[in-house]
Task: structure prediction
Amino acid sequence: MNLQEFESSYREAMAEALNELQTAVLMLAQVQRKIYEIGNSVQHLSENVEEFINTQRTE
Result:
């Protein structure tokens, strides 16, 4: 392998690694967003259950 082939191979490998890193970062952002949404859903569900329980106790 000469210098030009080595440089080309290095650049291709680096570009692929950076693309994979960017993909992983985007996936992480999606997972974080989904965790946030699930957390909000659980919180709202809990509030609704608490409200229902309190309503039933007062009747």
Notes: The longest helix spans residues 3-58. The two ends are 84 Å apart (CA to CA). Helices lie at 3-58.
